[in-house]
Amino acid sequence: MCADTPDGTHVVTAFLRHRGEILLLCRSDAVGTYQGRWGGVSGFAEGDPDEQVRAEIREETGLVPGESVSLVRSGRPVEFADPSLDREWVVHPYLFDADFREIELSEEHDALEWVSPTVVVDPDDDRETVPELWTAYERVAPTVRSIAADDEHGAAYLSIRSLEVLRDRAGLLVAEREEREASSSGDDDRRTRDSGLDSEEEWDELAELAGRLLEARPSMAVLRNRVNRAMSEAVDAAPDEESVPGASAVLESTITGIERATAADTDAAAAADELIDGTVATLSRSGTVLEALRGGDPSRIFVAESRPAQEGIDVAEELAADDAIDCPVTVHTDAAAAHVCSQEAVDRVVVGADTVLHDGSVVNKTGTRALVLAAAHEGIPVTIVAATDKLSTREEVNLESGSRSAVYDGDASLDVVNPTFDVTPADCVDEIVTERGSLEGSEVRVVVEELRGLEEWRDR
Predict the structure, then answer these.
(1) Domain definitions of the chain by residue range
(2) What angle do CA 88, 111, 53 make, to 5 degrees?
(3) 3-state helix, strand, coil in the chain (%, to 5)
(4) What's the rounded Cα separation, in Å, for the pair 195 and 178?
(5) What distance in Å separates the CA atoms of residue 412 and residue 421, rounded to the nearest whole number?
(6) CA 47 to chain centre
(7) Alpha-carbon 63 to chain mean position
């Protein structure tokens, strides 16, 4: 049954994302349209698109939404006509994060690949895609605005989304330039001159975009460091100091940066999981800490709810449903952190970090300081798990605040304080575990100097 309506045939398309790449599927002869073309998970929207897209994911990949796949966002429908089919299409796009890449193909597809989304617009890529696939992706792709507004995910997650924003724009600029060059006329010298001018314009646009990303979440050092590294490596790829790097260099450096970032977070988690046994307490949502808990051997996990967004509730539910976690999971209010530390024989507090300052103090979700101070009072060791990119090159601390209504939305004349982050003193932290292992104070300062060198691209 087709979802034909007066405004067109409604279909859903889901982009599954894992480690910065999306899943493309090649449509088989078993489907009625666009056989042999590549696209996302798709199907006719015969009812509610939100329900249908989840059904299509289960049927076409074997993954289960809500368990191994989580919705990131849906986008505004893409409407277009295909004269060859004499049909008007209305595509409802969705973006989901997938926990892993193992896919069970249905008969509707005969091949799959995990790729950078930019291959969709790459004129040199030999995959023929379904119509308007890039437009559908852009409707759900990360943006500066979505990164600035995200209050559910940790700094490492958002840093990778920032690299995706740069990558996607660079990939589109590369495709547009190659199309212009392919259609241009004139001698080779003219094309060379045009390409040089294009490179300068591309760099200016991407540098401006990078600057906006750097200020999107000012408290997150990892976002700044990873964006700075991508831009710095693009500069280093130029043949000489006078050359301006173009979009191709930024495209390559961001793809490499995403691979490096995901590996660093995984390696930091692997370095920490050897320390995790017995009863563990944590707070807020850190993907790196979650990986460490899965790889460790905890006998019980306490999770603070992390007000006001209460992302700790989601973390506790995720841990409780995870087959890799074979122990009780207990959730509690942030205010009960000191009680838990004093009464529940906690063996270790393990938390992530949005930022590690040059002196070893830690910026993280509000409530971390209270939990760590309580742990220090009880003699409980505190482990911070974070990639080295989370070390800050700045002396000052910029602490974000949440909305007033998240704390109080009544009519009384009250001032409201809703800090999103707090600072935990360095002398309350026993170790900072990174992809390089545990860092001592002097080692922290060495890494900070390395990261400061990446900021010089802005002086061009």
Answers:
(1) 4-140, 147-265, 268-394+417-456
(2) 45
(3) 45, 25, 35
(4) 9
(5) 26
(6) 31
(7) 20
User: Which pLDDT score, from 0 to 100, does residue 192 have?
Assistant: 43
Q: Rounded to whole angstroms, what are the CA distances from 383 to 197, 280, 315, 353, 439?
A: 50, 10, 18, 10, 11
Mean pLDDT across 47-68: 94
Q: Residue 328 in contact with residue 302, Cβ under 8 Å?
A: no
CA distance 286 to 278: 20
Residue 68, CA distances (Å) to 71, 104, 172, 320 in order: 10, 13, 30, 14
Q: Is 354 a catalytic residue?
A: yes
Which residues, at least 6 apart from 279, have a Cβ–Cβ distance to it below 8 Å?
298, 299, 300, 301, 302, 344, 345, 346, 347, 348
Q: Which CATH number fits domain 268-394+417-456: 3.40.190.10, 3.90.1170.10, 2.40.50.100, 3.40.50.10470?
A: 3.40.50.10470
pLDDT, one tens digit per residue, over 154-187 is 788 999 999 999 999 999 999 999 888 877 655 5
**Which tokens go with 150?**
């995200």
Give tens-digit pLDDT for 172-181: 999 999 888 8
CATH architecture of 4-140: Alpha-Beta Complex (3.90)
Which backbone phi and psi does 143 adopt, to 5 degrees? -135, 170
- State the DSSP string of 55-76: HHHHHHH---BTTTEEEEEE-P
- Over residues 330-380, the pLDDT tens digits come to 999 999 999 999 999 999 999 999 889 989 999 999 999 999 999 999 999
Task: Give residue-wise pLDDT tens across range 119-163.
Answer: 999 999 999 999 999 999 999 999 999 999 998 887 889 999 999
184-188, 265-269, 430-434 — which is least confidently predicted?
Answer: 184-188
Per DSSP, the chain holds a count of helices (H) and strands (E) of 12, 19
Q: Which of 354, 389, 427, 430 is catalytic?
A: 354
